């Protein structure tokens, strides 16, 4: 059925699926709210083989309703990134079941360990997918390094108005 279908001239380009039902070569558009409405300012994906995967235009309205990029400090920063398996955005596999991360030339794969907080046992995983590729591209543009780990309890955190119920990133930074 659908897995064998292929649309060559859809709005976002070619549409095809892999055997898992995930779309191949999707394109995600970045949009910016401006006084005249919402304006596309870039995309992540591969429209054509010769075009870079990430493209952001200079046509962005910045806070304060200004059109020029604010001057900032170029400070190299190292971030701890928390993730979960959420296909097709983040895929995971046990390192013991496929060898070291990054050996498959067809995908960008990186280590993302999980620590069981009850036993303090670390399980080694590899992560890949759209979010990992975007993280790599953005880190190069913004100039930061990172390590990725899987959420300790393998759930997303939540925030209720005025009360931090659970947020691992903040919890990790505060040493809680």
TrEMBL record:
Q: Where is the signal peptide?
A: none
Keyword Membrane: yes or no? yes
Which molecular function term from Gene Ontology is one that the record holds? ligand-gated monoatomic ion channel activity
The alphabetical list of record keywords is:
Glycoprotein, Ion channel, Ion transport, Ligand-gated ion channel, Membrane, Receptor, Transmembrane, Transmembrane helix, Transport
Task: State the membrane topology.
Answer: Multi-pass membrane protein
Q: Name one GO cellular component term.
A: membrane
What the entry lists under InterPro entries is as follows: Glu/Gly-bd (IPR019594), Peripla_BP_I (IPR028082)
- Where does this polypeptide localize? Membrane
Task: Cite the SUPFAM superfamilies for this sequence.
Answer: Periplasmic binding protein-like I (SSF53822)
Task: Give yes or no: UniProt keyword Transport.
Answer: yes
- Origin superkingdom: Eukaryota
Q: Which Gene3D superfamilies match?
A: Periplasmic binding protein-like II (3.40.190.10)
Q: What is this protein called?
A: Ionotropic glutamate receptor L-glutamate and glycine-binding domain-containing protein
**Organism expressing this protein natively:** Mytilus galloprovincialis (Mediterranean mussel)
Taxonomic classification, please? Eukaryota, Metazoa, Spiralia, Lophotrochozoa, Mollusca
């Amino acid at each position: 059925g659908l897995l064998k279908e292929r649309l060559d001239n859809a709005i976002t380009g070619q549409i095809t699926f892999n055997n898992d039902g995930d779309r191949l070569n999707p394109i995600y558009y970045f949009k910016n709210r401006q006084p005249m409405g919402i304006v596309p300012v870039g995309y992540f994906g591969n429209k054509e083989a010769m075009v870079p995967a990430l493209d952001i235009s200079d046509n962005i309205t910045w806070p304060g309703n200004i059109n020029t990029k604010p001057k900032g400090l170029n400070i190299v920063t190292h971030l701890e990134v928390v993730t979960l398996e959420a296909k097709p955005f983040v895929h995971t596999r046990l390192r013991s079941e496929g060898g070291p991360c990054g050996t498959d030339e067809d995908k960008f794969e990186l280590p993302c360990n999980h620590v069981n907080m009850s036993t303090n046992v670390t399980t080694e995983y590899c992560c890949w997918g759209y979010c990992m590729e975007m993280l790599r591209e953005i880190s190069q543009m913004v100039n930061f390094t990172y390590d990725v780990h899987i959420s300790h309890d393998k759930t997303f955190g939540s925030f209720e108005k005025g009360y931090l119920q659970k947020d691992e990133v903040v919890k990790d930074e505060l040493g809680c």
